[in-house]
Amino acid sequence: MFWNKLIVNPMVMKLYLRKISIRLCISGLFLLNCLSGFAQFTETREFTRHFKIQPETRIDITNKYGRIELNTWKKDSVVIRFKMEINEKKPDKLKKTLDNLDFDISNSQHYLIIKTQVDKERSQVESELLKFKETMLQTNGSIRIDLTVWLPDNRELRLENKFGDIIMGDYLGETQIVLSNGKLKAGDLPKRSSLNLSFADANINNLPNARIISNYSDINLKNSGTLRLESKSSTIEIQNSEDLSIDSRRDKFRIRQVEKMDAAGNFSHFMVAELKNKANIRLSYGSLDIEKILTAFSSIYVESRSTDVNLYFSPESKFNFQITETKTDLNLGRELSIEDKEILDSKVNKIRHSGYFGKKMKEDQLIINAVGGETNVLAY
């Protein structure tokens, strides 16, 4: 047979085994080098501080590269647990990072201020480089600083966090929150609130009186009373709002139910499921959809430029309208009766349509000024 006749040269076998041995050594050295490149030196520290505060004390907490978690209680004191974890590839780099890390704490009758410092011993050039990296959204992954806070729920409170989350439940005092590159989870904030969000993801239960500045963020808000919004490149969802004022740039809004709405937008899109009372809206290069306008609404004013507008009214509604359009694709439902059509400027094809929906009334409740785009006024 073939296998019985096969003869292996001892010299060839020796050379073959030597090549395998060399390859295994090279692979082992390569693996060892890779593992050494991933070696980490870790330092973990944890400590707790207690602070006695007065009824008028304002609490101000600023953190970076970690989470702020709030827990409320009925005591006139604040307890903060600091937990830090630093990971570096070299021991000297670990020591340098630890030397740069500190907490600036001030406690007086009127203020309790806690501020995380991560660049205490850095040179000006190093500090500017760190700020540049943060601007480019490159976080310092070697540091994590978590603050767990126990505090009364009725003091004036300011929270600021960068590259980390803020977790809190209901809070009864006035609240100011500044958050970038993190998540916010909050319950009911019944007193006046101010939120400044950048590259953030926020979920909030209730804001009866609030102002929000939002840049490149996602917001999910369940209930709001009086809400003022300045937003840019954000996605915002609101379940219920009583009085909503919006200044928008390149946003997407989804609003389930609103009583009153005042909005100005450029390149923004608004989807409203139900409007109860009043709307004053000025849009350019965007879209507006109001799927259900209740019979008892008081007034609607829309000024649009290169914008698609869709308004749906109850078949039982009764109101007068005045629609002025210039080069607009205008579609009116059969419930709308046009009494007068006036050409205001034949050169640009500017036309004013006047009439009523359902039944003629004393005053105009719907006024639309549209330039370009498409405008549809229909019954749902």
Please give a quick description of this structure.
The chain has helices at residues 2-5, 10-37, 91-100, 124-135; strands spanning 41-52, 58-64, 68-73, 77-88, 102-107, 111-117, 143-152, 157-162, 166-167, 175-180, 183-188, 193-198, 201-215, 218-232, 235-249, 252-266, 269-284, 287-293, 299-305, 308-313, 319-326, 329-332, 336-345, 350-357, 364-371, 374-379. With 380 residues, the chain is mainly beta. The protein has a domain at 38-175.
Describe it for me?
The protein is mostly beta strands. 14% of the residues lie in helices and 59% in strands. It has a 26-stranded mixed β-sheet that branches. The longest helix is centred in the N-terminal third of the chain and has 28 residues, at 10-37.
Helix content: 10-25%
By helix and strand content, what is the structural category?
Answer: mainly beta
* Topology order in helix (H) and strand (E) letters: HHEEEEHEEHEEEEEEEEEEEEEEEEEEEE
Number of helices: 4
Question: Strand count, sense and closure of the main sheet?
Answer: 26 strands, mixed
Which regions contain 5 or more consecutive residues with pLDDT less than 50? Answer: 1-7, 29-36
- Average pLDDT figure: 89
Strand content: over 45%
Find the count of extended strands (DSSP E, 2+ residues): 26
The radius of gyration is 32 Å
Q: What's the N-to-C terminus distance? A: 90 Å
Question: Which descriptor suits the 3D outline?
Answer: elongated
